[in-house]
Amino acid sequence: MSYWMKVDLENIPEKKGIRRRIHVIIFGSDTFAGKLFDIVLIAAIAFSVAVVMLDSIGGIRANFGDLLWKLEWFFTLLFSVEYVLRIATVKKVKQYVFSFYGIIDFLAILPTYLSILIPGTQYLIAIRVLRILRVFRILKLAHYLSEANFITKALWQSRRKILVFLFTVVIICVFAGSIMYVVEGPENGFSNIPISIYWAIVTLSTVGFGDITPITPLGQFISAIIMILGYGIIAVPTGIVTYEMTRSTRKLHRCVECGKQDHEKDALFCKHCGKEL
């Protein structure tokens, strides 16, 4: 069918009406049909992710492998039809395709098709769980995203301090790992410097897997210092981000004229002196 024939068909009122109704159902959540579609969609996403998780369990896959494989393809085809309908009914196709939800919708159906060429990639379908983020729109929770943006902004503003902190941690781990390689040596499990750095990272982060442990008294003394240092290091990023969040809050809610801070988040003018915030 040529482009002009497509245009002529789209100019037919009935055709436009069908596209409009489908668009409202898929992208809208104010109507009963739109809410029902979103609820069914989220339920299908949850079930499809559950199918992938069950398929990764050997015993279940051995007994119900064929059923799980059919369900996986059923959900993939269902989401493929939904994706095509979204593209067919949206006005700005490129804007939707390259939007956050557009990319997630595409990645949600891609792994199953890739599994035909690359076995095992079907387990990447777990990315479908990100589509449940649409629940924010269904439950009218979008206004909570402003709080998430506030935290994101604080993280972005403190990015340089955090990078300096992480660089310092890397230097400490490299130095501590090199020292432990010299002190303990291969005979005590510190077979090379990269392995020793891995031990330093595990110890400094207070994870402590225990797969490599120092044997000599000097090595144990150094490890004790690193563990104590780790408790202090954990609190540093939290303090950096908290400071930026506090400073951002003061900037948003403090009046430069009278200094009062008890304003609403969306206030434009000071309720005490009338000065623009």
Task: Explain this structure.
The N and C termini lie far apart (58 Å). With 277 residues, this protein is mostly helical. It contains eleven helices and no strands. Helix 4 (58-89) crosses helix 6 (100-114), helix 8 crosses helix 11 and helix 9 (159-183) crosses helix 10 (193-204). It has two domains: 13-140, Up-down Bundle (Four Helix Bundle (Hemerythrin (Met), subunit A)), CATH 1.20.120; 149-253, Helix Hairpins (Orthogonal Bundle). The protein is 69% helix and 0% strand.
Please summarize the sheet with the most strands: none
> How large is the radius of gyration?
28 Å
Global geometry: flat
State the name of the first-level CATH class of the largest domain.
Answer: Mainly Alpha
Indicate the mean pLDDT: 80
Low-confidence stretches: 1-15
Following the backbone from N to C, one meets helices and strands in this order, namely HHHHHHHHHHH
What is the terminal separation in angstroms? 58 Å
The percentage helix is: 55-70%
Structural class: mainly alpha
- Taken as a percent bin, the fraction of beta residues is under 5%
| The CATH homology group name of the largest domain | Voltage-gated potassium channels. Chain C
